[in-house]
Write a structure and sequence with these properties.
The protein is mainly alpha-helical. It is about 65% helix and about 0% strand. The chain contains 12 helices and no strands. It has helices spanning about 5-10, 10-25, 30-40, 50-65, 70, 75-85, 90-105, 120-125, 145-155, 160-180, 180-190, 195-215. Helix 3 packs across helix 7 (about 90-105) and helix 9 runs parallel beside helix 12 (about 195-215). The protein is elongated and about 60 Å long.
Length: about 220
């Protein structure tokens, strides 16, 4: 069976952070704080979920086991990303620094949105189902968002719950965060202008009514 250890450099959460460090306009410290904000564990999470501390340990291992020969065998795009992220440092030095930032972030409360603004990639990671609320509706086909939503539910029923439940959960989380933090509310609306408070309220109300009546 073929082995592909270069996946350590090309995929997963570490590669995601490397991509942000290589091409993003914001400081790496902000991206690490956003990462820990997105991957924070709740009481129902499995204990082996990948979070900051185990990822830091993986980076420690990668730094100590780093081989220029192996790195040269990785895909060119991955090598460019890691090299750009490292900047003037060596790749192993960058790995150790990133591990340190992850450990420091893990010891803090999640960063507030006033201090570290919401980023587009956070929205994609946490609220993907709110990015295209009416993607199933053609322009002008329905008189309102509520009518489009009802048509979608009717078309998908009885398997509508598969997407309705996580969509409602995401909408309620955005609503709660928006009422708690003006900075989050403003940033989210600027990144997802179609997901207004009114639209999210309609989504929650209509979806919950359907789920209660037909799937409760």
């Amino acid at each position: 069976m073929a082995l592909h250890p270069e996946g350590m450099f090309t995929s997963g959460p570490i590669a995601h952070l490397v991509g942000l460090a290589a091409g993003g306009p914001d400081p790496l410290e902000w991206e690490v704080l956003r990462f820990t904000r997105v991957t924070r564990t709740d009481h129902w999470d499995v204990t082996w979920r990948l979070t900051a501390q185990p990822l830091a340990s993986q980076l420690d291992y990668l730094a100590t086991a780093f081989s220029e020969k192996f790195f040269a065998a990785c895909p060119p795009d991955a090598r460019r990303a890691w090299t750009a992220a490292a900047g003037p440092r060596s790749v192993p030095e960058f790995m150790s620094e990133l591990a340190m930032l992850l450990r420091l972030a893990d010891r803090q409360w999640p960063a507030g949105y006033d201090d570290v603004p919401l980023a587009q990639w956070e929205v994609l990671a946490q609220f993907p189902l709110l990015l295209a609320l009416d993607s199933w509706a053609h322009d002008g086909e329905h008189v309102s968002y509520e009518a489009a939503l009802l048509a979608y539910i009717a078309a998908e029923h009885p398997f509508c719950y598969y997407e309705l439940i996580p969509r409602v959960t995401q909408a309620l989380e955005v609503g709660a965060l928006s009422t708690q933090c003006d900075a989050f509310a403003k940033s989210f609306l600027s990144l997802v202008p179609a997901a207004t408070p009114e639209t999210l309220g309609t989504l929650a109300r209509v979806s919950f009514a359907h789920l209660t009546e037909h799937h409760g």
